[in-house]
Design goal:
Blueprint (H helix, E strand, L loop, with lengths): L15 H30 L3 H36 L7 H12 L1 H44 L7 E3 L5 E3 L10
Antiparallel strand pairs: 1-2
Length: about 180
């Protein structure tokens, strides 16, 4: 298996079992992250702040694990490039695809595509949760402005000369 630094015990490029194990581990981690993001979505909808803090901690751990795996993959690519005297032309994705093709063939590439699918699913779920968080923050800001007596979003009005100006009228909730 790989060492914490991301290299194999012998210091060479990894064998197919090591790559397969890392990708399988990442698929499992990504599946856990998707489930966690679904739980986060529900907690956001239900305004359960106490659950959100716990979910955030777990989410950070899973993200750290995926980041560590990414570093390991990058180290493997670098080690292969050095051992083969290759010039790193191409994108990271194309280099990785070539690497997978050389050491594992179609089965390993299929597994990699499954991981990419899971990662994209996580990304989509996370973006949705981000929108919910952003909307909640905007709503909270508007509510606080109402309580403070400020205009929620002061509309711009046109003057007789055609310029715009902000409406200066505000009512506090106590005056309303």
């Amino acid at each position: 298996m790989s060492t914490p630094s991301g290299s194999t015990p012998s210091g060479n490029t990894p064998n197919i079992r090591e790559v397969h194990a890392l990708i399988a581990q990442d698929i499992q981690t990504a599946e856990e992250l998707c489930e966690l993001l679904a739980e986060e979505h529900q907690a956001l909808k239900d305004h359960k702040q106490s659950e959100l803090n716990e979910l955030l901690t777990k989410k950070q751990q899973l993200m750290t694990a995926l980041g560590s795996s990414s570093t390991t993959r990058n180290n493997w690519l670098a080690a292969e490039a050095l051992s083969e005297g290759a010039n790193n032309k191409g994108t990271q994705d194309s280099l990785w695809a070539g690497f997978l093709s050389r050491i594992g063939g179609p089965k390993l590439i299929e597994q990699w595509h499954l991981l990419e699918e899971k990662i994209n699913q996580c990304k989509s779920l996370n973006e949705t949760n981000g929108i919910i968080i952003s909307r909640g923050q905007k709503t909270m800001k508007q509510l606080l402005n109402i309580i403070r007596g400020h205009s929620v979003e002061a509309p711009k009005l046109y003057t007789a000369s055609g310029n715009t100006r902000l409406q200066q009228h505000s009512q506090s909730i106590s005056k309303a």
